[in-house]
Amino acid sequence: IFMVLSLLSIVYGALRCNILAIKIKYDDYDVRVKPAAYLCIFMWRSFEIATRVTVLVLFGSVLRIWIFLVVLVNFLGFCFYPWILFWLSKSPFPENIEKELSRVGTTIVLCLLTFLYAGINMFCWSAAQVELSDPDLISKSQNWYRMTVYYIVRLMENAFLLLMWYIYRTDFYLYVCAPMLVLQLLISYCMGIFFMLVFYQFCHPCKKLFSSSITEAL
């Protein structure tokens, strides 16, 4: 019961962050979110987060040491990714975050921001993409390519972790139909991707402002 309540709480938080990110990106427009959009986001985040957590728990239950490597690689990868993009852009160091902050304080704030960004992306696609070269520190453009790469790589990673769990599973899972469980989890993640596509294609409140639809981008 507590696990279900925690999942619902996290999914609701992800839903609110999605809506907030849309309003921040399109603050010059009157954003009206329809009930269908709320439903798509809720289903998208539910399947995505629940599947990701289950996959990590299953993998960690049989390969307890290796799960730390998986988590560390994911966290450090997403943590350094915004800094790498910032370095490649050759933009000046952000100075207008808060006037009272020194350069050291600004660096600490940016590091905490990227830590939060990395923690979110370990489990689901972040609603707001960090861009250190932007004055608002958030990417205002809709990057279909980055999103597509994220979900393809994440689906492949989940499949690989489930395969490792299937190979090294212990007698604890003797009465579990392992092939069916693997299939259900992969289908669940694909369902999350499906609802995400439906949201951006049909239910996004600002879809008319996109330079291209997600189907055209794919």
How do you describe this structure in short?
This protein has 7 helices and no strands. Helix 1 crosses helix 2 (35-62), helix 2 (35-62) runs antiparallel to helix 6 (178-203) and helix 3 crosses helix 4 (103-121).
Describe the structure in your own words.
With 218 residues, the chain is mainly alpha-helical. The chain has one domain (1-216). The protein contains 7 helices and no strands. It has helices at residues 2-25, 35-62, 66-89, 103-121, 144-168, 178-203, 214-217. Helix 1 packs across helix 2 (35-62). The radius of gyration is 19 Å and the shape is globular. The protein starts with a helix and ends with a helix.
Number of strands: 0
Determine the N-to-C terminus distance.
39 Å
Shape summary: globular
What is the H-and-E element order?
Answer: HHHHHHH
Overall average residue pLDDT: 88
Give the helix level as a range of percent: 55-70%
Which stretches of 5+ consecutive residues score pLDDT under 50?
none
Total number of domains: 1
Which structural class matches the secondary elements? mainly alpha
Largest sheet: none
Strand content: under 5%
Whole-angstrom Rg: 19 Å
How large is the count of helical segments? 7
